[in-house]
Amino acid sequence: MRPRLVLHIGTAKTGTTALQRALSASRDALVAAGCYYPESAGNENHFELAIHAAVLAKMEKNRQAEPPPSRATFQAAFADEIAALPPNVHTVIMSNEHCQTRLKTAAQISALHDFLAPYFSGITVSLYIRRQDRRAVSAYSTRLKSLLQPDLIPRDVDSESPLYNYYNSVTQWAAVFGRDAIQIGIYDRKELFHNDITLDFLNRIGCGSIRLADIQADENQSLGLKAQSFLAGYNTKFDNADEDPGQQLDRRSTRIRKRLLARLAPLDTGAGRLPARRDAEVFCAMFADSNAKLLAEFLPGRTSLFDSDFSAYPLEEVPYDPAMFAVGEAFAELSRHSDKAAAIGDIARLRKKGGINRGGKNRRGLTD
Predict the structure, then answer these.
(1) Which candidate, 187, 264, 273, 305, has a CA 20 to 30 Å from the CA of 361?
(2) For residue 136, what is the DSSP state?
(3) By CB neighbour count within 10 A (0-12 exposed, 13-18 middle, 19+ buried), where does 280 fall?
(4) Of 69, 70, 94, 68, which is closest to residue 81 (Cα–Cα)?
(5) How confident is the model at residue 362 (pLDDT cuts 50, 70, 90)?
(6) How far apart are the C-alpha atoms of 64 and 91, rounded to whole Å?
(7) Percent helix, strand and coil across the chain, each rounded to 5?
(8) 159 shares a domain with 10
(9) Domain of residue 331, residue span
(10) Domain tally for the chain?
(11) DSSP 8-state code for residue 3
(12) pTM attached to this predicted model
């Protein structure tokens, strides 16, 4: 008998990285309990799913019969892996948040369904949603890491945004997979089973007895105020990279940046910047109607979709730390132009200026 599939599609900024890492690290425990987390689509994040669906939809549109070699290779590997499932496996779990963010048309979602359906007895589409303002604030650090200069609350978003209008997204998936196939969880630690996304997910799909492997803290964590300020200053030297190819990072700068990002999160784990309370309220209000429709049609047992508590936000937007912003700007110039010997001395002076000392705690209580 074919197993069922639980397809987790995010959404982004709802603990997806932690969930994927836990599932991939616990493959033996999952198999022992009759569950399976495939490897052919990606070791942790099954990124091949979104890529494959997009290509299949494009092939259909162009009436192309033969897939590109890379797609044919993936399809064969996936078919072989599912065919070789241990006989006790009753549930296959796959996870990729890009399915929700990048498969934006009915044709793309249908292509994914048509690819997966022959292998399974049924498909459940599982996703978590987060109050829109909280998701935006959580995404702020991620966007800083991407060489951007983002707003704390996006100003280029309207009520139809595919990232924040959950109703539009869910109805698209329901139209293809069926309304009964949609499983929605609320990403809020007060609502998660044992305050944990992985335990909540497994409990929701009927696999709550599985003992997961211990994993390290999520590498995709948010940055604290000082680290955010440093990176924002750094990004000022590259924020026109899309318009000016000459500002793109060279290989040396790219290596330095990767090392920088690896150090920033553990350097500053305190609270990050926050928008003004009124800005968060106004942003969230844009989605009141779509949230109400989602609640009525997909979660009728709940009295509200999200809580209405905005007290965690200050009355005024939290600004950058000016000293760390300046250090970030200077470091960007050094990483682009200074030779290694000169940079070592200059970086040491910049660390001192920003209140960061190697080893131990700095004068503002941050651990390096």
Answers:
(1) 273
(2) H
(3) buried
(4) 94
(5) very low
(6) 33
(7) 50, 5, 45
(8) yes
(9) 225-273+319-353
(10) 2
(11) P
(12) 0.85
